[in-house]
Amino acid sequence: MTRKTSSQGHSYYFNEKGLVGNQTYDLNAFLMWKGSEQMFKNNGLLLLKSIDLSSNHFSGEIPLEIENLFGLVSLNLSRNHLTGAIPSNIGKLTSLDFLDLSRNHLVGSIPWSLTQIDRLGVLDLSHNNLSGEIPTGTQLQSFNASCYEDNLDLCGPPLEKLCIDGKPAQEPIVKLPEDEKLLFTREFYMSMAIGFVISFWGVFGSILIKRSWRHAYFKFISNLSDAIYVMVAVKVSKWRHRG
């Protein structure tokens, strides 16, 4: 049986043969995708173009056999509970245009083979536990930083976190020697004492030296105490009358 189908610039030619006499079963397919023609034969899985298993509860590691689905164009395994590392030879999927492995529990580094997928247009590895440096000098830097976010130990462009020897750079921790700590503490308390003395004598020294200021100060204190006394006496008198 022979079929030929085309849609929006993509087409495939399908030729299927059954068992006739002693002849074996044969399966051939030619696929035209984005201007590139590829032939697949015998293995039906090679005809698979898209896998979308997102938003499930799958657990365990990504099967290594997925590297052999050379015709795969779209792979979406996001929002699951997948663990382990990204298959090291995922770069074999050179026809891959869409890859979403976000929101899992994947660990390890981003495989260098991923840089071999020139057609990759959509990538999302965010919200995992990936670590190490994002392979540099490749199209992986052209993706938005959000494609790699929430991987605490991942570093390198396009992320702002820099790498040192392939590991995230740590913020420098400044530790003072014990003698410097003591010197800093002593100088701190000395400056507080000096500031208090200067402030105290700056106010009261002026009052003691200048008679008019001294008289005004004591008059203010006397008036304030009289006002407080009157206020308290009125409150007590009202309380007694109520009683």
UniProtKB/TrEMBL annotation:
It is found in: Membrane. Belongs to the RLP family. SUPFAM superfamilies: L domain-like. PANTHER family: LRR RECEPTOR-LIKE KINASE (PTHR48063), LRR RECEPTOR-LIKE SERINE_THREONINE-PROTEIN KINASE FLS2 (PTHR48063:SF98). InterPro entries: Leu-rich_rpt, LRR_dom_sf, RLP23-like. This is Leucine-rich repeat receptor-like serine/threonine-protein kinase BAM1. GO terms for cellular component: membrane. GO terms for molecular function: transmembrane receptor protein tyrosine kinase activity. It is a single-pass type I membrane protein. Keywords: Glycoprotein, Kinase, Leucine-rich repeat, Membrane, Receptor, Repeat, Signal, Transferase, Transmembrane, Transmembrane helix. The chain crosses the membrane at residues 188-209. Its EC number is 2.7.10.1. It is an enzyme of class 2 (transferase). Gene3D superfamilies: Ribonuclease Inhibitor. It holds the Pfam family LRR_8.
